[in-house]
Amino acid sequence: MPEKPQSFANHARFHPIYHFVLVPILLINVIVSIVWVVREPGFASAWDLVMACALMILVTLVRVNPLKAQDRVIRLEERLRLYALLPESERHRIPELTEAQLIALRFAADEDLPALANRALNEKLTGKQIKQAINNWRPDYFRV
Asked: Number of structural domains, the chain?
């Protein structure tokens, strides 16, 4: 578990090898491939550019697809948590919460969740606004 408590200010997750090594190398590869196509047009240089772009697409999908799968699980988890914590009279509003709202609400502690969920619905808060409004932060150290 990380040494520093998680909060709005530090909850974003960077994977150093992915964000600061792999992506920059592949971006440089695309730039070099474009330069090569301009300086020495031909099948080999064009194919190199196509492959460089394909690698960028691949590395993007490798990051985005697990995040989307995790978002689906978070939505389900938060709907179940809201169902357990909201009074019966308010449960019918759970489907009105957007994906971004549900994902942001995962950081709210159980005691803050009902009031914050109602506020999110009534004031149409964005995910960022919800996170900023959280008083008692519930960390999520398992984000992909």
From this structure: 1
Q: CA nearest 122: which of 142, 101, 99?
A: 101
CA distance 28 to 56: 11
34 within some domain = yes
- Quote the pTM value: 0.78
Could you count the other beta carbons within 10 Å of the beta carbon of residue 116?
A: 22
CA proximity to 125, closest of 85, 94, 98, 91: 98
Quick check: 131 and 107 in contact, CB under 8 A? yes
| pLDDT greater at residue 91 or residue 7 | 91
CA 1 – CA 80 distance, rounded (Å): 25
Range of the domain at 106: 8-133
Residue 49 domain-assigned (yes or no): yes
* 138 found inside a domain: no
Say how many CA atoms lie within 13 Å of 18 toward its Cβ: 12
Strand partners, 137: 108
